[in-house]
Amino acid sequence: MEFQELDPVLNTPVRLAVVSVLIKVKQADFNYLMEVTKTTQGNLSHQLKKLNEANYIEIEKTFKGSYPQTNCKLTAKGKKAFEKYVEEIKKYLHL
Prior knowledge:
Layout: H1 13-22, E1 28-29, H2 30-37, H3 41-53, E2 57-64, E3 67-74, H4 76-92
């Protein structure tokens, strides 16, 4: 069996967690993602930027009253990459 190299964009715990959440929900805001990934604001911000640069997520910045709000949603490319990543992990684990 030949193993493909795991997607370096998703092969990071926080990024993988973010995509895992977004695969289940239509979109999620920054605070929710920070809560579920249990990471810092700075780290999450950095990881979201990497996912966005790879076109795996879309980031929409709006205001709710006078508070900035950042919403993220998975792109078709991100969904496909996640599904491929899961398949590769299954091969590694012989599932």
